[in-house]
Each structure stands twice: as C-alpha cells, then as structure tokens.
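2024-03-11 09:14:02 INFO worker-7 job=invfold-0412 stage=load source=structure_tokens
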C-alpha cells in the first residue's frame, strides 16, 4: 500500500493511543480512520465504529459521512439537523446530524432522540461534542442500508515541491527518502511482535537506519516501561523541503482531549548525512538529557534538545543595537545565553526599565503573546503597572526555545538586571516549564495564570458543555467567581464533579490542583496592582511592535513604541502635579487622598468613597480591641462583606480583599472608618506606589541610618534618571544652560564635592 508523508496532519492533535490504519487518506475520510483506530474488529476485520465525544474531523462533511457509515452498520439512516452560527461573524460553528426518524413531521418519524453534534474549534477541526445513541424504534438489517454519499472534492495528485508541502498539505512518496517515511500500517504487526522484547535505554547519539526503525525502538521501549506513544511534529528543510527531524511523543502529550494530561515525554530524531557520492542517511537521537520525572501525577521520561528558534540574523542586528545603546546609556543591560558556541536566549533592559522596577516591580506580567499564533520572532516582555495604571516596560526577551532551561535563564537574567528584585506577584502562562522556572527563580512569588490562556483552555476542554448546557455554565461560573471562602469553593467544585461525572477528568484534576493560580478567591489575597482577574493588562507595545514584525523594522518600531509610552507617562505626571480633581464630599479623607494620589488613582479611591455612603455597617462581634462589622449595600442583602477593625492600631481588613489585591481601600472599610469617625487615613493605607511622588521609589521612605550600600544601585539609577531630565531641560537655551550650571555648582558645594 502506498504511504504518503502527509501523515502528520492527521496525527498531531488527535487522540490515538493505538495507531491504526491512518495512511489510507485517499480512500476514506480521516474521521473514519480515527474511528477504526478506536473501534473494535470482528473476525472478518470489519470495523465496528463507535462515535465518542472528542473524536475529531477535518470538516463537518467528514463528520456526516462518518455518522452515516456508523448508521449503516447499526441499521438506521441519518439526516442533517440544526446548525448554529457565530454571533460574531455568522459562520457555522456547530452542526447536528440526527436519526432519520427524529421529529414527528411525517408518519414514518417516531421522535427518535439519537443524534451527534460536532463543533468547530480554534484549530479549524470539528470535534464531536455531544452524542445520544439510544433510539426509540427498531433497527433495519445492518449493512442493508445504502448511506447517503457525500460529494467530496478529490485531492489533486501530490507533486514534489521544493521548499515546502503542496497546496493540499499532503506530500507524495517522491518528496522524501524511504528512510524519512514512517509506514504505520506496515509497522502495526511489527510493533505488536516487538513490544514484548527487551530494548535498551534511549540516549543521545543513538543511530537508526530509518525513521521506521526509530519509531519501532521507541514503541518497544514505551511498551516495556508502561506507556504508549504517537507521532508528533516533523520538521522540514527550508532549502529542499525534505524531512530533517521527527518527534515521537507520549500518547498523553497535550491537552486536546480529557484523556491527555500534557505529558512532557518525547524522543526526537534528526537526519544525519555522511559519506561521498551516494549519501548514506542515518537517524540519530539528539537528546540533551534523559530524566524520569513526576508530571501530572505519573512518571514521564523527559528528553529535550535545545535548538534556537531565533534566526541568526537577529543576533547580529540586536547586538549592534545593544552596543550602540550602551554607549549612550551606561545603565543599559543586556545578556545573551551561549550554548555550545551558539546564541540562544536574549534579554535586555535600559536604565529606565531598571529604574522603573525599583518603583513598580511588585506586580509583573510576563507577556508571551507571540505564542497565540504565527510569529517572525518569539518576542516576550516584562511589564509592570505604573502609578497612573499604565503599562510600564521592565525588560524584553527573545526566547530561543520554550523549555524550563530557557525560561529559567530569562528570569535569572531579569533578576540580575534588577539587582535581585523579587516581585510579589507575576502573571504568566500556565505551561509547566514556566511554572517550574518561576518557582525556582522567584520562590514565594505568587504565579497567576494568564487570563487568555485560561479562557482558551476552558473553551478547548469545556466548549461543548458551556455552549450547550446552560445549567452547567451557570453552576461552573458561580463556583469560580462567586465563592467567598475556600470551603464554599471546594463544596461547589465537588458538586460539579459529581453531578456531571467529571471526577476522573484529567483537565479538571489539574486545574483543581493549580486553583491558587487562577481562581479569583485565591488570587485576590495577593497584590496584583488591580489587574482584573478575568482580564489582562493593556499591551505595552500595542500594534506598533508585534511578534510578526520583520527584522528590518523591529528596532525602529521598538524605539517608536518606547517613546510613545514614555511620553504618555510624562503627560500623566504633568497632569497629576498641575491639575486637580473635583471633590464631591466634605470628608477630609477625600482631600487627603486628592493631595497624595495621582489623578487616576484618586478617581479609583473617590469612587469607593462615594459608594460607601450607600452602605450600612452593623457591629456583629467584639474580641478585645478588634470589632467586626457586617457591611452590606442598602436594599441588597446579597452583597455582604465582613470588616475587622482594631481600634488601638487603626488596622482594618475586609473580606473582599480589595486593598490586598489593588492597594486601595474598599468602600466597606471606608464605611467602618466613617462609623468610627476616623478623619484621616493611616499612611499605610495610601501606598506610595500610587502617589504623585512614586518616582522616588522605596528610597523616599528608607531609613537614612541604614546601610546605604544596599541601595547604591537604586540610588544611581534614580539620580541618573533625574539628571537626564535635568540635562534635557537645561540644554534647551543658553539662558537655561547658565541657570542649570549655576544650580549644579551650588549643589556641588552643598555635597562638599571637590572640583
């Protein structure tokens, strides 16, 4: 049987723990082949296809043909049912195929409830989301019904294409050497025969005569260890389109199906060429290391090879830029990781970024937006929140490859640049490599998962339930967003798991284990500078600089974005010192906060102050100096919060955790201060990072008698930043220059600084 090299398109995202007859794509739809892999065979070899939730199809038509063939075997007919369209663009996102006896429009129909529903996912594939197999009528003789045939476009004959695949995405035999091809159908019997035999440990440098041999080796090794494998990604030469590398992965790699747990085990082989005249090709395992580690509750053999995803031209251009910037800005920091003489990860931060971290490095976003789609360069950034609630650049990185080693190096480079700064919190992706790197470099920092990734994973794993079952959607969102205590959350979560039979779902197990990194209840007790739990910080670079920006425009756009954002910050600084917000009450606390906060933050506080007038507080408990109040909105008994107030220390805390999360007192705490007739807020409840004078950073409140050596780098950055602005202002005219010079001379005398 001919075998084509386009098999990867069928196996990359599909859940096949047993690789079956997936090569016959010219004669049967991919969905049927999936079904054959998962179905049962009788003595004659006929496949008894069983539809199941999670089954994937390349198109809705393939799903229809699959269900039609299944119906033929069982003994009923089907027809097309309801379709669902997107509210955004009107495209079809879901279809139902029903038993021909569904409904009662004709006498022959019995209202049969049997159906399948397929839903289109982000990858473009169609996933079987719902199924009901029970019929309310007798079946006809199996196999005697002629299924309706779908008129399908035939694939054009694949042609050899230098530098890439054909337009159909399927390559012919002629494109690749026989040693490049993994003949799964031929290997099926060989695999079973070989699975019980002994096999050695995989190690770097192990050679094979073909990709088939490498697959057989790893299959047998996996069988002996106790796991299954499937074919992962392949890599082609940019010069002639030939296959240069392949990956074989654990069957539980990824999260595309509930049975998958994101296992990190894989083996990667790379084609080696040697000899003269006739090229003798060998396949070598190119593994950096081999570790048996615990992942997702089980053991995985993790093997990695570190190769850079950064084009060589990028290193030259960026290094030239870094050196020119360092000549202008002595506080400019950059680092390049070298691995076996080759450039890997890159990190850089100018003096302004490093200075800003001293002020606003408590809550950090590690922005890896490039991972959402295609990119020219894997560009990532560290972003903070300034005292105007604007995004603030704290450093940039270009990521060579997404491994724990890479992320660890990048986080360590950032920490070195920021003189060992350890953020209170960091928002970053959920990937295990990032999780482990943050835990290693920033122990004690609260890692919160990116909102966009949580939403994407929810859609991937719960899309069908959320879109089709309104009751589940309501109960799930209530559990996540409305739980006020850990016991409330656990109770609601357990009810969901039991009611919808999700107790053994791998994705739910993992998300519960990591609940402190994404559930609002567990996030709100940590300072995140008010970045919404269901949202994210505005992109620092916006559309000016993206991961799609080509090399010849990257530096220019980077500088443009930097200039734009820093100019916006200067405007807000000017407004905060020269404009005043309008007061709405005669409460001296309002005047106190207007004097200290930036305009943006004063408006946040003012909203809470005004809202507190519509709340009532009732003392419910007294323990020594601590009184507890139940604070609720007038006319709305559902909104309740408990506030604890210490009359001797004026310490106050609220169950809503707004101050802990955002750094601004909530309406509930302000109501209790009103009840206790507190006319001025204790200074600890007006965070310096939100004040007009935040640019002095932590040095403003530092003890002058302490060790100044601890703050030396910070003092240098602060003075350098102030001096830069001073020089720019003093050089605008000859008169200003003379005045600036005289002031500097006076300052020199005051510091006892010799000429």
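2024-03-11 09:14:09 INFO worker-7 stage=emit residues=755
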């Amino acid at each position: 049987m001919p075998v084509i090299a386009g098999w990867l398109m069928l196996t990359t995202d599909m859940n096949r723990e047993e690789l079956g007859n997936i090569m016959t794509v010219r004669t049967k739809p991919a969905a049927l082949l999936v079904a054959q892999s998962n179905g049962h065979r009788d003595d004659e070899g006929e496949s008894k296809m069983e539809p199941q939730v999670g089954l994937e199809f390349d198109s809705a038509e393939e799903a229809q043909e699959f269900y039609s063939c299944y119906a033929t075997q069982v003994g009923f007919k089907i027809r097309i049912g309801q379709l669902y369209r997107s509210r955004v663009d009107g495209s079809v996102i879901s279809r139902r195929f029903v038993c021909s006896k569904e409904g009662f429009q004709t006498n022959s129909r019995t209202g049969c409830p049997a159906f399948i529903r397929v839903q289109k996912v982000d990858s473009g594939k169609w996933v079987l989301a719902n199924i009901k197999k029970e019929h309310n009528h007798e079946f006809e003789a199996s196999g005697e019904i002629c299924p309706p045939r779908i008129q399908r476009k035939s694939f054009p004959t694949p042609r050899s294409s230098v530098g890439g695949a054909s337009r159909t995405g399927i390559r012919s035999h002629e494109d690749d050497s026989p040693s490049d091809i993994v003949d799964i159908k031929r290997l099926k019997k060989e695999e079973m025969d070989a699975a019980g035999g002994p096999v050695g440990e995989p190690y770097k440098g192990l050679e094979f005569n073909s990709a088939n041999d490498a697959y057989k080796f790893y299959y047998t090794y996996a069988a002996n260890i106790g796991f299954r494998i499937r074919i992962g990604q392949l890599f082609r030469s940019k010069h002639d389109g030939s296959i240069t590398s392949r990956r074989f992965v654990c069957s539980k790699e990824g999260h595309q199906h509930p049975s998958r747990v994101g296992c990190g085990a894989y083996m990667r082989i790379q084609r080696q060429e040697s000899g003269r005249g006739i090229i003798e090709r060998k396949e070598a395992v190119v593994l950096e290391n081999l570790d048996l580690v615990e992942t997702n509750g089980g053991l995985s053999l993790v093997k990695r090879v570190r190769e850079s995803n950064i084009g060589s031209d990028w290193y030259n251009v960026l290094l030239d830029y870094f050196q020119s910037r360092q000549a202008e800005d002595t506080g400019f920091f950059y680092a390049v990781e070298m691995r076996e003489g080759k450039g890997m990860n890159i990190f850089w931060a100018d003096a302004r970024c490093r200075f800003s971290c001293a002020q606003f490095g408590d809550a950090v976003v590690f922005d890896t937006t490039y991972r959402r789609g295609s990119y020219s360069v894997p560009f990532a950034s560290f972003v903070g929140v300034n005292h105007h609630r604007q995004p603030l650049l704290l450093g940039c990185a270009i990521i060579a490859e997404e491994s724990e080693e890479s992320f660890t190096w990048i986080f360590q480079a950032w920490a070195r640049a920021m003189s060992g700064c350890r953020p209170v919190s960091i928002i970053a992706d959920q990937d295990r490599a990032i999780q482990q790197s943050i835990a290693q470099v920033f122990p004690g920092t609260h890692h919160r998962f990116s909102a966009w990734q949580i939403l994407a994973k929810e859609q991937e794993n719960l899309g069908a339930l959320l879109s089709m079952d309104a009751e589940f959607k309501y109960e799930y969102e209530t559990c996540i967003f409305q739980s006020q205590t850990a016991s409330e959350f656990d109770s609601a979560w357990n009810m969901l798991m039991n009611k919808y039979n999700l107790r053994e779902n791998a994705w739910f197990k993992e998300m519960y284990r990591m609940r402190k990194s994404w559930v609002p209840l567990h996030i709100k007790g940590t300072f995140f500078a008010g970045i919404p739990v269901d949202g994210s910080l505005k992109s620092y670079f916006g559309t000016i600089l993206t991961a799609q920006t080509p090399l010849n425009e990257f530096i220019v756009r980077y500088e443009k974005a930097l200039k734009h954002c820093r100019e916006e910050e200067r405007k807000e600084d000017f407004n905060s010192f020269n404009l005043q917000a309008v007061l709405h009450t005669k409460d001296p606390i309002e005047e106190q906060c207007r004097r200290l906060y930036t305009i943006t933050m004063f408006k946040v506080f003012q909203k809470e102050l005004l809202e507190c007038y519509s709340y009532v507080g009732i003392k419910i408990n007294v323990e020594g100096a601590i009184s507890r109040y139940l604070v609720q909105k007038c006319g709305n008994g559902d909104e309740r919060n408990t506030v604890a107030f210490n009359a001797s220390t004026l310490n106050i805390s609220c169950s809503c955790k707004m101050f802990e999360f955002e750094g601004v007192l909530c309406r509930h705490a302000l109501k209790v201060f009103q009840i206790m007739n507190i006319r001025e807020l204790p200074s600890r409840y007006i965070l310096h990072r939100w004040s007009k004078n935040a640019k002095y950073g932590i040095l403003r409140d530092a003890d002058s008698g302490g060790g100044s050596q601890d703050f030396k780098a910070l003092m240098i950055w602060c003075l350098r930043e102030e001096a830069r602005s001073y020089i720019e202002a003093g050089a605008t005219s000859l008169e200003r220059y003379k005045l600036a010079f005289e002031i500097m001379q006076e300052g020199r005398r005051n510091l006892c600084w010799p000429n």
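2024-03-11 09:14:09 INFO worker-7 stage=report msg="The two ends are 89 Å apart (CA to CA)."
2024-03-11 09:14:10 INFO worker-7 job finished
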